Amino acid sequence: DTLRLEVVHEETVPMQKVRVLFLAAPGAQPGECQIELLEPTDPDGTIAKFLERRGPGLHHVAFRMHDLSAEFKRLSSAGFPPIETTPRPGSRGHQVCFLHPKHAHGALVELVG
Predict the structure, then answer these.
(1) Which comes out higher in pLDDT, residue 48 or 63?
(2) Cβ contacts of residue 113 below 8 Å, gap of 6+?
(3) Is residue 2's pLDDT more than 70?
(4) Which residue among 26, 33, 88, 111 is buried most deeply as judged by most CB within 10 Å?
């Protein structure tokens, strides 16, 4: 409410054991900056474990890629291999993969295709 953000999408992603909520400024167009809030749906999921260890706060930043497969290959051959061996299903039907924080100055980076 303080930032006057609106809910633009909400769903549960069973594979990631998380419920997601996307917030954006009023009138924002799809693809413009959004904030994604995560809520664990399983105490054994990655997000639940993250919250146990670190508490609430920033988990990751995400960047939309025009060709996720090409970026996946490019990053792998450049010495920045994604955590997964192949992109996997994410929210909104997108394919996603993550770069380990050691390759991104301590930040977990999600690439979205």
Answers:
(1) 48
(2) 64, 65, 67, 68, 69, 71, 87, 94, 95, 96
(3) no
(4) 111
